[in-house]
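Re-run with default settings, no changes from the original entry. Doing this only to confirm the output is reproducible before filing.
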Amino acid sequence: MDIRIGHGYDVHRLCEGRALILGGVQIPYALGLLGHSDADVLLHAISDSLLGACGLGDIGQHFPDSDPAYKGADSLVLLRQVVALVQKSGYRVGNVDATVIAQKPKLMEYLPQMQKNIAGACLVDPQRINIKATTEEKLGFTGSGEGIAAHSVALIFSA
């Protein structure tokens, strides 16, 4: 069995006039994330970790922000397409462990739905998806409330 791991990272600036979507869940908050798609940093980091594990580059290569087809795109749909690329490469998702870094809003109550959304897109049992949220104790751009970041590690294995 061939086992591989990949790491993903994404960050987006918070701004007015946009919905805050994380893990495919719309979070009630005064600010949203700025980006060409829905700017879901969590799903972007997870997508990059899966693509990295397969040696398939990153989401910017597959879904460029210069392509109008991806304007406002649902990142859960993009994650499903990434999982299809993983499968086409002869692999399956083993597990994903990801962390959202945001001073505000508090995300604890939304984590179970994020886990369920991501598990569905990755075609795995929800217990194979672990999503955490943390603050940065008011340090840096995430701590000051300027943006939200996410890290992800994914394991894939040959099908």
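The two ends are 8 Å apart (CA to CA). Residues 49 and 66 are 22 Å apart (CA to CA).
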